[in-house]
Amino acid sequence: MVGFGNLGRALARILLQDGNPLQRRKIETSVVAIVDEKGGVIDERGLRLERVLEVAEKEGSVASLGQPGLSAVEVIRSLEADVVLELTPTNIRTGEPGLTHIKEAMNSGKHVVTSNKGPLVAAFRELTELAQRRGVQFRYSATVGGAIPVLSLAKRLCLGDRILAIRGVLNGTTNYILTRMEREGLPQDIVLREAQELGIAEKDPTLDLEGIDTACKLVILANSTLGLNATLSDVNITGISRITPEALKLAKEAGYTVRLVGSASSKGLSVRPSLVPLDHPLAVSGTLNAVCFELEYAREITISGFGAGPRETSSALLSDLLEIAQNL
Amino acid sequence: MVGFGNLGRALARILLQDGNPLQRRKIETSVVAIVDEKGGVIDERGLRLERVLEVAEKEGSVASLGQPGLSAVEVIRSLEADVVLELTPTNIRTGEPGLTHIKEAMNSGKHVVTSNKGPLVAAFRELTELAQRRGVQFRYSATVGGAIPVLSLAKRLCLGDRILAIRGVLNGTTNYILTRMEREGLPQDIVLREAQELGIAEKDPTLDLEGIDTACKLVILANSTLGLNATLSDVNITGISRITPEALKLAKEAGYTVRLVGSASSKGLSVRPSLVPLDHPLAVSGTLNAVCFELEYAREITISGFGAGPRETSSALLSDLLEIAQNL
Predict the structure, then answer these.
(1) Measured between CB atoms, which of B156, B157, B315 is closest to A298?
(2) Chain A residues within an 8 Å CB radius of B147
């Protein structure tokens, strides 16, 4: 495991539980190394996760348990492991350090599961091609829609149907803000402050409010399901800053809500506040995410759920791990 | 193909289209036999579907093109084919003639794709076990949620998570009626007549209105995802006949809508009109269907789409066919 923040720890906690999904399928797993920004801890016979979690919670790093200053790249390259879980924070400009981690993992013949949008936004095709060349599996369900198996659903839909367009409410923070503004008639800055106090919005909410986070997820979704090779610069992006409670009220009176929608089709990629009919499945409330596929035969299929949250998103990592195990 | 009603014909029309999903994956398909109630037509080199469709549309049967009185069982047993598509109408009491067709197909080593709820409701475990024993694949996506890949999604969710409960709006006719009653304040009998005129409700809408159709789908969904072996008699069923426009109005004032919800969990199976918060993804409108999975980690995932319609449901048949082809 490279990166051991909220998500990595939530996954570790699940792995410690009796009857977890890996155990249920009699797949013996051991975590042989955990590396974070400050260092790492290694045990080729399998780490004692209780102890590691304890230290990580207390000190914000696992370094003191093992080797402070240990380099993730070195560990990925030299250690024997089947899978590298790349769980470092997203850097949308360079994709680093995740991009290097993933390449190192693939080049040393390891399968990769990641929750990190950065590398996929920066170098989608490079990574998917590298995985193919190296004969390793590369899974990134957790990058789009958190716990919602959006990419797996898309794969199934592509089988017997054809995806014509995708529209997604892909950012829980902005959706929460729009929902509260609509319900309470409050201005954006007040709702934002409330969301920050609740831990729903980050201290610096720019990436969310300006639609960048939505655009990143859209790029990954479009590339992996429509076969594009888009990057962030291909997305026409408008955030929610100009949306007022008055606009939401007017929309509601006409039977609509306003949602920050990422759209992808052969016509291009965009992120913008959009009118969604109140009774349309895409009109989800609060921190929910939703993705609507427009299809040649099935017309429309929409999936929704919680697009964030460490425990929720762990289920995506576990599904990816289990799919890799099944294919081995 | 056994059964050649609206669904079978819609599928045949798609198979005739250039660039259909099978063709896109370079899977050569030929339909070697089509049998309906009145007889069948066989051509081991592949039927000319244009001609078959023409006759079926005009005469309501393909019999005059081939052999009137030809028995489906005989064809299934003796003809060489990889897959039998069982598309005869649902008989919820005995499951026949679909049940016999499916058993014959499996016993003669053929994979089965079906849209017929009857055999699965009557003999779920018998059929899944027979398929396993005979080493054939058995797919029935089209039986639950029409075009919505509910069963395939459930499979993925079971991988990295645990399904605790399922709630589904599984009948488009009742959902249309409830939606119209709510919106227009009209009594049920008037809305029903309108739905019948539009072809949304059948002449005899009993199975829909009384919740039997929902219960059938619930049984299949629960058996295949929760590992139960339930039949229709295990479901506690209440239909929508007692729902008045007044009840819908009161619910709406409190922020709810009333939907006919099928629920399954370890506590049992039930179908009954239920209050659903207006902003919950399960509160779909019109003829849409939706299924909400309650999960250990991901909390809630909901999928919605069109649960009926021959063209829509064809996409489920095609996905099933392609999954079988991929596994071969």
Answers:
(1) B315
(2) 161, 295, 297-299, 301
Q: How far apart are CA B151 and CA B135, in angstroms?
A: 20
pLDDT number for residue B328: 85
pLDDT, mean of residues A140-156: 96
Q: Enumerate the β-bridge partners of residue B35.
A: B2, B40
CB proximity list for B78: less than 8 A, separation 6 or greater: none
Report the predicted TM-score, pTM, of the whole model to 2 decimal places.
Answer: 0.96
Residue A328 has pLDDT above 90, yes or no: no
Residue range A304-316: mean pLDDT, rounded: 95
Whole-Å CA distances, B313 to A85, A296, B148, B212, B317: 38, 12, 8, 20, 7
Asked if ipTM goes beyond 0.85, one says yes
- Name the token pair of A208: 């969310």
Q: Which of A115, A159, A276 to mutate to test the interface with B (most CBs of B within 10 A)?
A: A159
Q: Which CATH class is domain B150-306?
A: alpha beta
Answer for the pair B188, B315: CB distance below 8 angstroms, yes or no.
Answer: no
Shortest CB distance from B160 goes to which of A148, A296, A315? A315
Chain A residues inside the 8 Å CB shell of B298: 147-148, 305-306, 312, 315-316
Q: According to the model, what pLDDT value does residue B67 have?
A: 94
How is residue A215 written in tokens? 């655009």
The residue of chain B with its CA nearest to that of A148 is: B301
- Report the pLDDT value the prediction gives residue B325, as an integer from 0 to 100: 94
Partners of residue A114 on adjacent β-strands = A86
Q: Domain residues of chain B, as ranges? A: 6-147+310-327, 150-306
Residues A118-127, mean pLDDT to the nearest whole number: 97
With 90 as the cut, is the pLDDT of residue B214 above it?
A: yes
SS3 annotation, B113-177 = EECCHHHHHHHHHHHHHHHHHHCCCEECHHHCCCCCCHHHHHHHHHHHCCEEEEEEECCHHHHHH
pLDDT at residue A238, rounded to an integer: 98
Cis peptide before B277 (omega within 30 of 0): no
A290 contacts B312? CB cut-off 8 A: no
A90 burial (CB, 10 Å; 0-12 / 13-18 / 19+) is middle
Nearest CA in chain A to B317: A160
pLDDT digits (tens, 9 = 90+) for B291-311: 999 999 999 999 999 998 999
Mutate to test the interface with A, among B297, B304, B319, B321 (most CBs of A within 10 A): B297
Q: Choose which CATH entry (3.40.50.720, 3.20.20.10, 1.10.287.130, 2.40.340.10) describes domain A6-147+310-327.
A: 3.40.50.720
**What is the mean predicted confidence (pLDDT) over B106-115?**
98
Instruction: Specify whether A217 is catalytic.
Output: yes
| Nearest CB partner across the interface for A297, out of B296, B299, B315 | B315
Task: Out of A103, A110, A117, A217, pick the active-site residue.
Answer: A217
pLDDT digits 0-9 by tens, A61-116: 999 999 999 999 999 999 999 999 999 999 999 999 999 999 999 999 999 999 99
Identity of residue A77: R
Structure tokens at A9: 């720890």
Q: Taking a C-beta distance cutoff of 8 angstroms, is the pair B182, B284 a contact?
A: no
